[in-house]
Structure formats: structure tokens, C-alpha cells
């Protein structure tokens, strides 16, 4: 069974009023204390409560920079908010307010799009500098260090293996996983790696091609694939060998023929730098593994569901915000439109590998050079708001 994109059941990152009430509104004294401890709560959250016209706007007001507005003023102030991009005041549940200048934007009118109203403070494009792309140096040794490339053990003889029906066999009938074919030109390989290093450094992310279990997140033992509701897909011997070879090739710098570019509307995106065959393992989705319950206030932009369990407290997600690989830059389709669905060329499939869950991005058809990579962030659940995707 494939994973949904972020495995996030909360739907939106705006705090629910109940949580908000619990956390912030029990009494004015607590709110004061909270304000000291937690420097601010976002205007979006304040506005959300204000819009609901609830009695607890007393504490909303309390949060509103300590001003003595009454709750009606707060409601009025925000009721007229319009999106700076499309000019509409509709759909205000999807509108985010700048914590500096109060300008409002629908999250889907922003470029790149936000998938949920941030629970934390947020600044509009005019109040923040666009992130400068930090081009990674072209120096080979730097790239090798960045990816901690291991000694190359030789190009696998893919042709021979194919002829003999070995692990790299690509067959539509058997649907065996296939290993990527790296670019032969070493300069091209370096360019591909450099593009990924540029995207990672610009996004302040360390490269990691493995799932990581840092202190304070979920422990490794919690990744128990046997807990998956309905059972997780097992890897057969051939697929397992293909997976291992694919990982080894990444470790040795024989990376999949992918290039990361920057799109003004979507941010970093991944494109095929040479043709990729159906069933190829394009990348494993990596990052810090954590309990879903610990991530309810994350922006949810790139969180991937890893383990769906009977007991909600045991559900796991992959969080590629500190450590990650190329998978976190792959775009999602708009799965509400036929156009969007046509773009899909990958699928995220979760496998049981030695008792642990792993999420792999697999090609679901032949992909041409230059094609942008897409998969459905909502393959099985539908909590990722892809309706606003381009
Ligand atoms: C997992 S990240 C993908 C990498 C991201 N583009 C970046 O620069 O980090 C998901 C985010 O990418 C953007 N995105 C992904 N697919 C998109 C699409 N089809 N249309 C518009 N934005 C998209 C959205 O901003 C989304 O929140």
C-alpha cells in the first residue's frame, strides 16, 4: 500500500479552537504567562479565533499586542481582509496574514504555494527577501565531500544483467523494480549532484540518503513495519537486490539521472536528465523519523507518512526539514484535475525492509529526458490540499 504524502490527519496546521483554548485561553493570567514564555502566536491564529466571533476573543485581544481592542473590533478588522494577490476576500480560512504588515494572501495564491496556514509567525513576500539560491561550487572534491561519496566499486554491467534476466531486468509483466542507469559522462554526474547540493544548501538541509532517528524524535524501534494496518508490502528477493544496488550506487556517486532546478511557482523541482524506465527506483524518501503526534504544528509542506498503525500515537512520519535527499524536492500533482493526473510519473510505495518501513519513489511509466517528476501526495488519503497545485 502506498503512503499518502504527509500522513497528516490534522488536515490543517491552524490550531483548532479547542487546542487553542486549552493552550492559550484558560485565563488571562495564564495567557500573560504564556506570552512571556512563547513570544508570539501568529496573526493567522488570532484571526481564526476572531473570525469565529468567540468569547475567547478576550484572550485573542490579549494576544493582540496587548491592545485593549474589544472582540468586535478584532472581528471587524479581519473580516474585510482581501488577498493581495487575487483581490478576493473569499475563502478566508485559506488566508494567511503577514505578521509584520498585516497583508493577507490566500495560501494558494502565494508562489511557491503554502499547503496550510502556518501556526507560527509568517511574513509576506514584501516583508521577506526571496531566498537567494546558493549555487554550490563546481569543485569536484567539494561535491564528493558534500555527499560523502564512497570509493566507486565499478559500473554494474547492466546490459549483461538484463540479458540474463538478473536483478536489473525490466519487465512490464513481472513488474520487478529496476535500478537507475546513471549518466556515463562524469561531468554530467557532477552537474546533477551539484544541482542537488545547491537545493539542499539553499534550503539549509544536510544530505542524508537514510532514514535518521535523532534524539528527541521517534526511536528506531518504533519503525516496526508489522504494525502497519492491513500489513505493509513485502520486498521480494529481486526487488530487495535492486533496492540495495540502487542505494550503493547513490553512495558511490553513481546517482540517478536527475537534475534539480528552480521554478518561480513551485520552488525547487526535479527533472529527468536522461530517460528513466518504468519501475525504476528513483529515490528513497529520507529524513528524520518522528511520531506524527509530535508534528501536528509543522507546516506539513514536505512531511511524508511512513507507518499507519491501529494506535494513532504510534504513527510515524518522515520529516525532511533537517536531513534529506532528492526525494523531498519532487513535486506533487494536482489530483483534482485530469491535467494534474496526466503529469504523474512516479508513485510513492512503502515497503517492509528487514522489518522496517521505507518509502520509495518508483517510476510508473517511462519518463523522457527533461520531464518534471511528479507523484500524488495524496495517493491513499486526501488531506494534502493539492487542489491548489499548478
Ligand atoms: C515537498 S515540497 C517540494 C519541494 C519544494 N518545491 C521546495 O522548493 O522545497 C512541497 C512543496 O512544493 C510546492 N509544490 C510541490 N508540487 C507543486 C505543484 N504541483 N504546484 C505548485 N507547488 C508545488 C508546494 O509549495 C509544496 O508545499
TrEMBL record:
Pfam families: PHD, SET. Coiled coil: none annotated. It comes from Riccia fluitans. GO terms for biological process: chromatin organization. PROSITE patterns: SET, ZF_PHD_1, ZF_PHD_2. InterPro entries: ATXR5/ATXR6, SET_dom, SET_dom_sf, Zinc_finger_PHD-type_CS, Znf_FYVE_PHD, Znf_PHD, Znf_PHD-finger. This is Histone-lysine N-methyltransferase. Residues 80-130 form the PHD-type domain. GO terms for molecular function: zinc ion binding. The lineage of its organism: Eukaryota, Viridiplantae, Streptophyta, Embryophyta, Marchantiophyta. It comes from the Eukaryota. CDD domains: PHD_RSF1, SET_ATXR5_6-like. SUPFAM superfamilies: FYVE/PHD zinc finger, SET domain.
